[in-house]
Design brief:
mainly alpha, two-stranded antiparallel ribbon, 4 helices
Length: 195
């Protein structure tokens, strides 16, 4: 009997609750004679569908930013193409660095908890990324127009510094969250469908 949350074999009296999303399953048919619950094929399919949906949502998060971020970064904050590429690359760098650590801690934290924490990180980082667009640009007043409204000149050089730094940090956090969800999800799939 395997518990999805910890990935450990469970005895009859312990382990995860039978009503939870990540139910105890008998992946190899062991323990069927001991009265332990078998998960039906439809339950396995529901689990697989939920995990595929979760991974699909994260991949759209990864890909959608590449469509509009370069335009906004260059027009609004005058980031160079190198800076834009660095922001977009932070997702993969975080995934690369964190996936082995996540894999090592799955047993302690649990797969379900890792998926939930990863989604919370990704959601928070995505909201923060949206808020980054509202960072004011650095400008100085150079005079007044005929209606006595101030005329501003955008400062060259440093106007996108805060936007760039926050974008790199937030994109890195998104990558950490994605590595948590993906690593745990692939682990659950390999437990559920061993053949």
């Amino acid at each position: 009997m395997t518990d999805y949350n910890t990935g450990r074999a469970q005895n009859e009296g312990g382990g995860a609750e039978a009503g939870s999303f990540f139910k105890k399953v008998n992946t190899m048919g062991q323990g069927a004679n001991k009265g332990q619950p078998q998960v039906s094929k439809s339950e396995k399919n529901k689990t697989l569908l939920a995990l595929l949906l979760a991974l699909g949502i994260l991949q759209t998060l990864y890909m959608n930013l590449a469509a509009f971020f370069p335009i906004v970064a260059e027009k609004e904050y005058e980031l160079t193409p190198l800076q834009t590429a660095l922001v977009l690359t932070m997702f993969q760098v975080a995934y690369l660095l964190c996936a082995p650590i996540v894999g090592q801690t799955l047993q302690k934290v649990g797969r379900k908890n890792m998926i939930l924490m990863g989604y919370m990180l990704c959601t928070g980082a995505t909201v923060a990324f949206g808020i980054c667009y509202h960072i004011p640009k650095e400008q100085k007043e150079i005079g007044k127009d005929k209606d006595n409204k101030p005329i501003y000149e955008q400062l060259q050089g440093g106007q996108g510094t805060l936007f760039f730094a926050l974008s790199v940090a937030i994109r890195f956090i998104q990558g950490i969250g994605d590595s948590m969800v993906s690593t745990a999800s692939y682990s659950v799939v390999s437990i559920e469908f061993p053949h």
